[in-house]
Design brief:
There is one protein chain. α2 packs across α11, α3 runs parallel beside α4 (100-113) and α5 runs parallel beside α6. α9 (258-261) links the parallel β10 and β11 (269-272). The protein has 2 domains: 22-141 and 281-352, Rossmann fold; 144-272 and 358-381, Response regulator (Rossmann fold, 3-Layer(aba) Sandwich). The protein is of the alpha/beta class. It has helices spanning 2-13, 38-55, 75-87, 100-113, 143-156, 170-186, 205-214, 226-238, 258-261, 281-294, 300-318, 326-335; strands spanning 25-31, 58-59, 62-70, 93-95, 117-119, 136-138, 161-166, 189-194, 218-222, 245-249, 269-272, 337-340, 343-347, 354-366, 369-381. The strands form 2 sheets. Strands 7, 8, 9, 10, 11, 12, 13, 14 and 15 form a 9-stranded mixed β-sheet that branches. The protein has a 6-stranded mixed β-sheet with strand order 2-3-1-4-5-6, with helices on both faces. Bound molecules: P-hydroxybenzoic acid. P-hydroxybenzoic acid (PHB) binds at residues 98-100, 121-124, 171, 224, 251.
Length: 395
């Protein structure tokens, strides 16, 4: 009767009906399945599927269902697909996106709709900083979190001048701002910076010529997806690494791109929240299971998908499978903490950003394979609030 009453009320109000005990739990997935970041969306999805197999795809009799939409790395497309998932498919929660610009476009809608959005990649600082929301939880990283430690680290290693090069959108600018701040605070100089367009740049030669002429100690770069592969090959062919160290945000030589990059990736130094060579039982178990299923190495994107799905399952176990009380669902996510393939992980309730270890690695030739070898680790890296005031209902 209460359910019927709720249903009638919901129909009158045009709101989604409250979920019954046996109803599936619907997760709307907004990821790029086409465009420059298509491979990243695929890896995150594969990671989520493995986690549901490992940690359970049914909670309190409710099966977890994924409804996938392609955001194409286009902000307006990401927002439209998000609205479709909420209004038409009436999803219980959302997972996505990959790109910071798409995340920026989705933020206000998700905030006002009060539907939990678990971000499995996009690092846009604002989402867990100035524009934080009780409904936006990030399991991946912030752009600042990955990069801000590297300015001091590179200075300590003897580098005194950097040239910055990154894709021209929110993520590229935020990552370069983070390393610029910490490198100049340590006493280093930024001798140049360029931001090639994200989707259109295929030829990096004009940028490489400028970097060569500027003669910095190192370049610090951010590229991912197709552009990372093209950039790594072109730097190698240009012979630039002999004169200028190649450093940057670690996605440049992700295991997802390494098969295409091959030996051209050797010599890169980067920072990242996961590399496959992490020496732990949790990581070995994950890699064994993933490689057995997919015949390829699990990447940081796979791990972010895997940990996202695990967080969701464990939070649902706390709520007894209930999804109608969204605040209770988010509160449950704050209670979850575990050691996954990347190490210990929990969500900071002050910002809703993940607290995690950051690894510094070198991409080396190890026997016949090219691998990311860990050379340093920054433990439990936690973002400052960065202007976040977590109040329900703030616009
Ligand atoms: C982002 O847009 O936030 C982004 C995209 C790809 C990455 C990292 C960050 O590899």
């Amino acid at each position: 009767m209460r359910i019927l009453f709720g249903l009638a009320l919901a129909l009158i109000a045009g709101l989604p009906a409250p979920a019954g005990a046996g109803d599936p739990i619907r997760i709307g997935v907004v990821l790029p399945f086409s465009g420059v970041y298509a491979a990243l969306g695929g890896d995150i999805t594969d990671g989520m599927m493995l986690a549901f197999e490992t940690f359970g795809d049914t909670v309190a009799g409710r099966r977890i269902e994924l409804i996938r939409e392609d955001s194409e790395v286009k902000p307006s497309v990401g927002l439209t697909k998000t609205k479709k998932l909420v209004y038409q498919d009436q999803v219980d929660l959302l997972v996505g996106p990959v790109a910071s610009n798409v995340a920026g476009a989705m933020r206000d809608f998700v905030h006002n709709a009060e539907i939990p959005l678990i971000v499995p990649n996009a690092g846009n600082n604002l989402l867990t900083g100035e524009r934080c929301s009780p409904w936006v939880i990030r399991t991946s990283f912030s752009n600042d979190q990955i990069n801000r430690g590297m300015g001091g680290w590179l200075f300590d290693k003897g580098y005194r001048s950097l040239y910055l090069l990154a894709a021209d959108y929110a993520a590229g600018h935020q990552m370069m701002a983070a390393v610029k701040r910490s490198f100049t605070a340590a006493g280093g100089a930024i001798v140049g910076e360029e931001y090639p367009p994200l989707r259109e740049t295929k030829d990096f030669a004009p940028y490489l010529a400028k970097i060569k002429a500027a003669k910095p100690d190192a370049m610090y770069v951010f590229f991912a997806g197709g552009p990372a592969i093209q950039f790594v090959k072109q730097v190698h062919d240009f012979g630039l690494k002999k004169e200028i160290a190649l450093t940057g945000a670690g996605w440049l030589t992700s295991p997802l791109f390494l098969p295409a990059e091959g030996a051209a990736a050797v010599g890169f130094t980067g920072a990242l929240n996961y590399v496959p060579s992490i020496d732990s039982d949790e990581n070995r178990q994950f890699q064994n299971a993933f490689q057995e299923k997919h015949g390829r190495v699990g990447s940081e994107f796979t791990v972010q998908g895997y940990d996202t799905a695990r967080l969701i399952v464990e939070a649902l176990e706390i709520t007894g499978g209930a999804t109608d009380d969204k605040a209770a669902l988010v509160a449950a996510m704050h209670q979850v903490s575990f050691t996954g393939p990347r190490g210990p992980l929990r969500i900071d309730p002050a910002t809703n950003n993940v607290i995690q270890d950051i690894y510094v690695f070198e991409t080396r030739q190890v026997g016949y394979a090219v691998k990311q070898v860990v050379i340093d680790k920054m433990e439990a890296v936690q973002d400052p609030p960065n202007g976040c005031r977590m109040e329900v209902g703030r616009g």
